[in-house]
Amino acid sequence: MIALVSPAAANSADEQKCSAQTKVSPDERIAACTSLLRLDEYDRQNIARIYFNRGSANNIKGEYELAIADYSAAIEADPTAERAYYCRAVAHYNLGDFDRALADLDRTIQLNSRNRIAHYARGLIYSRKGDYDRAIGDYTRSVQLTSQDQALRKNQNEPNRKGDDLAAPVGGDAAASEPEGIDGRIFLARGATYYEKGDIDHAIDDYDQALRINARDKDAFDYRARAYNAKGDFARAIVDADRAIQLDPEDALAHRSRALAYFQSGSLTKALADFDRATSLDPRDVYAALWREIVSMRSGAPSRLAAATMKLDMTAWPAPIVRLFLGEVTAEEVLRAANDPLPAKRSGQICEANFYSAEFALQRGAKEQARRLFGLALADCPPTFVEAQAAAAELKALAASP
Fold this sequence. Notes:
By secondary structure, this protein is mostly helical. It contains 21 helices and no strands.
């Protein structure tokens, strides 16, 4: 919230509530700001601040459309209101309107090119849109600006600030109120973007950096375990997943990562135990359920897939693959279901359709069909997909025992 400077009622209760000078609920703040707006005694700058404060209260409530209207009114009153552009971007993002969020972040950065949080937030959106190079550029700029700000404060013997003028970054992925703590989030975000690009080594470098900042960053261990799995370094993936699980025993993704590493290392019993744990922690994880089925078929353990469908979303992808393993559809029907108007989504789904159909064929002794489908998966799957790594391993195994 931004403190107001009122010419007429600087100490009024409404002033204090609207400007967050006293602890009140969002509804009380909205009422106070609304009351102030009815008065005809503020200049344009103060009107902008009142609208901004009311917009921020609406944002906290999740009333994003109302927040956008207030931020827009603040911008109309003061076109240089950097904070209003930034916070309106957050609201647009929360409504799923990435293009409008980007436009507002562009304007924020035009008004203040050193706004490190706006660069970070814009990087998040570029990454969500698949524009990885621009995302990495914004993350890198945010890192540079943060380092420069910290060096300046250190040279001037200034303590790290405990607060920040801007709202939390888009999506709540980091706390803008902790400038010294955002660094790790930036490295995690940039590392994840490198990973999506298929640049696994740079991703691991960023996860390493995040862990140098915070040696107990569970997410960094999670992400690095996934990256080591992608490199085929299963021993390191297991070590990182172990550490993530030590930090959070209920981390379903860490159990799944470790299970995949165990599976690809040939430790079926350990893999099954971790997949069981992952599916119990997150019964909605379709992929954990599918992999649990693959391991159970290979190890002779009872299937749980039919029971798992009670918690799975069977209306969306990869539900057709689940139905394949349940014997309800054919591989050809799964491939048809993988089609999608979006090229990137279609490519990923076809990759998965071929891989899991190959696993299904392999379990039924149809080795030639499995070999063909694994080959298609290996050719089409992005290298970061676990299905690509597993397809390569399966083809190697099939070659060794024709």
